[in-house]
Design brief:
Protein name: ArsR/SmtB family transcription factor
InterPro entries: ArsR-like_HTH (IPR011991), HTH_ArsR_DNA-bd_dom (IPR001845), WH-like_DNA-bd_sf (IPR036388), WH_DNA-bd_sf (IPR036390)
Order of helices and strands: HHHHEEHH
Largest sheet: 2 strands, antiparallel
Pfam family, one: HTH_20
CATH architecture of one domain: Orthogonal Bundle
Helix content: 40-55%
CATH class of one domain: Mainly Alpha
Structural class: mainly alpha
Oligomer: single chain
CATH superfamily of one domain: Winged helix-like DNA-binding domain superfamily/Winged helix DNA-binding domain
Number of helices: 6
Strand content: under 5%
Length: 130
């Protein structure tokens, strides 16, 4: 059996827009299942399932204070995911830079006067109009 790595669990948890919204809400502080469920048209049980996925990914921890079990954000796995994505920033910057250079070269070629079949520039002589 293959074990999931932390990064895979993080990205799997982030794949769902409801879970991303829950994480966003938790940036303002701890919240109960009821508070997290309020903006959604779903049951507390459905929100609890989303919280379990977030807990499994290490993105959320749940406290125990009698019946009050607030969920809190743990951003450490998000930082690891951000670093992983950031590793590709140089690749994209280089790729976009190369594309920009190529497009600029094409544009400069388009600004050149046309050449005849021999490769020499051809210019039409202007003739005075009567």
């Amino acid at each position: 059996m293959m074990t999931e790595d932390q990064l895979s669990r993080t990205f799997a948890a982030l794949a769902d827009p409801t879970r991303r919204a829950i994480l966003s809400r938790l940036t303002t502080g701890a919240a109960t299942v009821g508070e997290l469920a309020a903006p959604f048209a779903m049951t507390f049980a459905a929100v609890s399932k989303h919280l379990r996925v977030l807990e499994h990914a290490g993105l959320v921890s749940r406290g125990r204070d009698a019946q009050y079990r607030p969920a809190t954000l743990n951003a450490r796995p998000l930082a690891a995911a951000s670093r992983w994505i950031g590793d590709y920033a140089r690749f994209w910057t280089d790729s976009v830079g190369a594309l920009d250079d190529y497009l600029n070269a094409l544009q400069q070629l388009g600004d050149q006067p046309p050449s005849d079949a021999s490769g020499h520039e051809s210019y039409e002589k202007e003739t005075p109009h009567d």
